[in-house]
Amino acid sequence: LTGAQDGSVRMFEWTRPQQLVCFRQAGNARVTRMYFNSQGNKASTTCRCGVADGEGFLSIWQVNQTTSNPKPYLSWQCHSKTTSDFAFITSSSLVATSGQSNDNRNVCLWDTLVSSGNSLIHAFTCHDHGATVLQYAPKHQLLISGGRKGYICIFDIRQRQILFTFQAHESAVKALALDPSEDYFVTGSAE
């Protein structure tokens, strides 16, 4: 899956030189993040991919479409300025997003199975100037987010509350990684 500054999103297969599908044409907002849902290889779950963009939107497609320019089955504006990252929480029915919104609700939980007007489950007011990255820890049901000012926030998604906030860097947090046992996480910054 490839995404570009021009907003285009294309999917390729390793053994074929041409694209399989063009999910978005050039001329859309720049792509900020893309993921496949991790449950997509199971026979009972349809494989999906999500694309976040610079205008605050998150769009999700079913991957096994036969048309060359499929429409997303879900597309909504998650943040008023930009959606910088997201994570599939439960298959693709629950999604967390990070970004920048005018009201500082910069980390949000969304239910994709309800109408777009009712899909916001919870919005966390955090990260002045926006959240840049997001990592989901499934064993502990935690979200870890990094912000533009170098802060890290850790959220309990079951209780929908912020557990910890601390400054890890002097500049924007650009990367988060979690070890498989969920004992440690690593942060990377703009400096």
Automatic annotation (TrEMBL):
The keyword Lyase does not apply. WD repeats lie at residues 166-191. Keywords: WD repeat. GO terms for biological process: vacuolar acidification. GO terms for cellular component: RAVE complex. This is DMXL2 protein. It holds the Pfam family WD40. PANTHER family: DMX-LIKE PROTEIN 2, RABCONNECTIN-RELATED. InterPro entries: DmX-like/RAVE_component, WD40/YVTN_repeat-like_dom_sf, WD40_repeat_dom_sf, WD40_rpt.
